[in-house]
Design brief:
By secondary structure, the protein is an alpha+beta fold. It is built from 15 helices and 21 strands.
Amino acid sequence: AVVSTQSTGSGSVYGGDEVGAVCFDIGSHTVRAGFAGEDAPKANIPTHMLTGDENTKYHIGTNALSYPREKSEVVMPLKDGMIENWEQCEAMLDYIYSKCLSVDSAEHPVMMSEVAWNKPSIRHKTCEMMFEKYNVPAFYLCKNAVLAAFASGRSTALVLDTGATQTTAIPVHDGYVLQHGIVKSPLAGNFLAAQMREHLKESNIEVVPTYKVAAKEQVKEGEPARWTPKKNIPAVSNSYHNYMVDCVIEDLMQHVLQVHDRPATDEDLNMIPGNSFEFPNGYNHMFGAERFKIPEPLFDPIGTNLRILGGDMLAMQHVVSSSISMCDVDVRPSLWSNIILAGGTTLMSGFSERLTTECTAKTTSSMKVKVVTGGNTSDRIFSAWVGASILASLGNFQEHWISKQEYEEEGKLVVDRKCA
């Protein structure tokens, strides 16, 4: 299992009070980083960054992204949750070490999360980067689903992670990921954003991003916006403009989207009070039944306009049931009764209740279905980071670290032996 019950007799304590380990959780939307033993990460910054010039190659962080620069492109180091661009990844880690944590990387062990389907070559290169470039005294790589389960005090669970790019169901048994049971679906945050963009286009609502607005006036709901454009805005790239529009859409979705507790008719939805949202340019719009219709395909994708996606369009409950059915029959009851939600998209109001209803309908009456939501919002967004923070600070975890000495003796392949 991930945590041994035996304490190490070694004198070199990595995660003790003297020198705390640093934990990194690199996601497709944000990067979380901070010190082991703390309740929440010190840094929670966008994974996207802006290209720069010879002096500053990349502009990183929320403030840097909000400042328009001529022809700067928005880029990110990940693809399918795995590190693809190493230069950008190193730029991100440099920024976090110097600007967010203000520590010397050579003085702190590092625990880093990884997706359950990470490639061996990427695992090897990550290990090599941390020891060679950052000179860390110790390193450990752990599956993010295992960390999310650990954060909720479980070693066996089904982690349903609905983030930006995809939804994944990952079965964890006794601290190990059951690789054969991993199921993915492209129905996730970016899919909802595309549905919302389509709705705004059909409603003739133009999304003016924040960087274009100098001032705005208060207007009544539905009235044309009265705003003053900023002058002398540099000629920004399409990728920058689209990213800033996406930020508004993300904010909009967090404010108005809701999951209905069951498939509902238009008549049912029209009886529910609407929710208004003020756009950056001051335009105020009331969102009605579409608040429920946009996220409905997460649970009922049939008949939706899904041309924007590839892959299997599995609904949330089908992702869960498919994953569990691929696992050993003896493990299934433990997975059904420990469904852990992770990822920002699961924070929508009504999501966990609807998932419970749909999953209950897919099992026998004797099977107990329990969806574990965590105590608060940050528990779900930061679940993998919190799991890393707990794990890296445990005294009986010491023997699991890859020490600098082990790396020097065995090389980067040591990660395969020590980090299962």
